[in-house]
Amino acid sequence: MDHIGLGLAGAGWLGESLIKELAAFPRFSLAAVQDVDAARAAVVATDYDAAWHGTEYEALLRAPGVDAVVICTPNAFHVAQAQAAFAVGKHVLVQKPLALTGGDARATVGAANHAGKLLFVDYSYRYLDTVRVLREALPSIGLPRRISGAFHNVYGPGKGWFFDPRLSGGGALVDLGVHLLDLALDLLHPAVTVLERAELSHTQGLQVEDAARLVLRLDGVRMHVDTSWNANRPCTEMALELEGERGRLRWENVDGSFFRFRTLHDDRCLLERETPLRTDTLRAFDQALASGTAPPVHLAVYELLDRAYGRAGQIAV
Ligand SMILES: NC(=O)c1ccc[n+]([C@@H]2O[C@H](COP(=O)([O-])OP(=O)(O)OC[C@H]3O[C@@H](n4cnc5c(N)ncnc54)[C@H](O)[C@@H]3O)[C@@H](O)[C@H]2O)c1
What we know:
The chain is α/β, with parallel strands linked by helices. The protein has 2 domains: 4-122, Rossmann fold, CATH 3.40.50; 126-275, Dihydrodipicolinate Reductase, domain 2 (2-Layer Sandwich), CATH 3.30.360. It contains 10 helices and 14 strands. It has helices at 13-20, 38-47, 57-62, 78-87, 102-115, 129-137, 165-168, 172-188, 278-291, 299-308, and strands spanning 4-9, 28-34, 52-54, 68-71, 91-95, 119-122, 144-152, 193-201, 211-218, 221-228, 237-244, 247-253, 260-265, 268-274. The strands form 2 sheets. It has an 8-stranded mixed β-sheet with strand order 8-9-10-7-11-12-13-14, with helices on one face. A hairpin with a 2-residue loop joins β9 (211-218) and β10 (221-228). α8 (172-188) packs across α10 (299-308). The longest helix has 17 residues, at 172-188. The protein is globular. Bound molecules: nicotinamide-adenine-dinucleotide. The site of nicotinamide-adenine-dinucleotide has 23 residues, from α1.
């Protein structure tokens, strides 16, 4: 398709961050904006020149010129909204997490395949150049022996729905840890993933965990995942480190930045780059539409989350 009209569902912080960057992508235009908050939908539609706005998701799907839906609503709505879009033949870009359960994630991937439409999940970090370089360098370290991922955000989400497990599906683990699980699975494609231990902390009196530690095995390789909101640290830390037979690769944010990342091989910097993040997502979505192939969705991410939250199976300690 030469031109793709986008319908935005959920015109909050992330939704606006994404559409702000649309000008750099001539193939995309914003056709419609939907939010349960009518005033918010109207303001964002006006600010970004969308011809249609409204509060009903079904109406967004019928709005003129919508070829693909960009779902930036609270987590619990992603599955139903994505499946409804596939049912009427739209492509979908949906924010992480795709789903709150492994079963729902699987059903949504199935719905996309059945409709022959693209399901693109916005695991933002996966699409960064620094992560591409990490992926390219992987063979140089030989077989991985140990993996560790950390995402400690000195800020909390600050919005009510994140703290309501019915809307969010959980706390720091599903919000931040999902990126680390996705990155590790996307780099290594393990055939077998095992959750050995999950510790969820509720030290901030929230209904969802403010911190989580997981110990996993990815095809026998041990991975530690450590994540928290409102981290008591000097600055936000994001990192994924893989130690192999012949060296160590580390992807990390620089000096607490949310927008500057680097990849190191042992102590040598392979690439350091600043990015607005959302352009990387839109570029990857554009390429996926052009090629007709979406980046893979690793269902094991959601099965691991199910196990960590005790929703299914056993947590082996
Ligand atoms: N990819 C990333 O790195 C990243 C970063 C931040 C947030 N996110 C994800 O983006 C999503 C939104 O997060 P946010 O921080 O923008 O939240 P937000 O609260 O700022 O925005 C959510 C918006 O959705 C609207 N909304 C609520 N229910 C709706 C419905 N049924 N239909 C349409 N609109 C509805 C709200 O009124 C609000 O405007 C979440 O899933 C979050 O996990 C992803």
